[in-house]
Amino acid sequence: MDQLITGYRRFRERTWPHERGRFEALSVHGQSPRAMVITCSDSRVDPQMIFGAVPGELFVVRNVASLVPPYEPDAAHHGTSAALEFGVRVLKVSHLVVMGHGQCGGVRALLEGAPPEASDFVGPWMSLARKARDQVLSCEPAELRQQVCEQEVVKLSLANLMTFPWVREAVEAGRLRLHGCHFAIYTGSLALLDENGRFVPVDGERGPPVREDR
Asked: What does the domain layout of the chain look like in residue ranges?
């Protein structure tokens, strides 16, 4: 906790004086982010840093492996679905990005089985992506299975997004665009999912589409 407090003090001394006006405006006028990003809880993946965003620009949801569950409005607890509902129906974001990443522990648990210490919740959660796992088990060489599965999980999450009736309605009406991407931790490179189902590296000079105007 001491390191966190030290970091907070740096924020107050160095960042707050320059960003005070932005935070005050966000407090008074509320948030109106252009994009929603669903990404992994992994501490090495920071969507605000990756996309060069500032507070108020991105509505971020983080969970294990960037998974979007299918639409199931029942009495169970649905944290990701609740955030989706708020982002799409209340904030009315115009872009929704699912970002997977390299060396994902959730995907490793999907392929190799969750460790005993994470069997209560991680295993059942990752079972949502069994279809992605089944698609890569025959992938050769075996070293590629982790990365290919990470990308297949992104595709699965995008497909699950379209099971939400209000997401599908917004997409079909042209009010919302869905994007898939994969971030490589070691190289810092981002690949976008194209119309042909391929992940294509982004040209660093052009920037990501989540910063487009409405």
From this structure: 1-29, 31-211
Relative to beta strand 189-193, strand 177-184 is antiparallel
Query: How many CB atoms are located within 10 Å of the residue 140 CB?
Result: 7
Nearest C-alpha neighbor of 84 from the set 98, 103, 100: 98
Residue with tokens 């970091």: 7
Annotate 93-145 with DSSP letters as a single string: -SEEEEEEETT-HHHHHHHH---GGGTTTHHHHHGGGHHHHHHHTT-SSGGGH
How far is Cα 99 from Cα 179, in angstroms, rounded to an integer?
Answer: 8
Superfamily of domain 31-211: Carbonic anhydrase (3.40.1050.10)
User: Within its chain, how far is the Cα of 27 from the centroid?
Assistant: 25
Please, are residues 150 and 107 in contact by the beta-carbon 8 Å criterion? Answer: yes
- Report the alpha-carbon distance of residue 15 to residue 60 in Å, rounded: 21
- Cβ atoms of residues 64 and 126 within 8 Å: yes
Residues contacting residue 42 through CB under 8 Å, at least 6 positions apart? 101, 104, 105
Per-residue confidence of the chain (214 residues) as pLDDT tens digits? Answer: 999 999 999 999 999 999 999 999 999 999 999 999 999 999 999 999 999 999 999 999 999 999 999 999 998 889 999 999 999 999 999 999 999 999 999 999 999 999 999 989 999 999 999 999 998 988 778 778 999 999 999 999 999 999 999 999 999 999 999 999 999 999 999 999 999 999 999 975 454 444 333 3
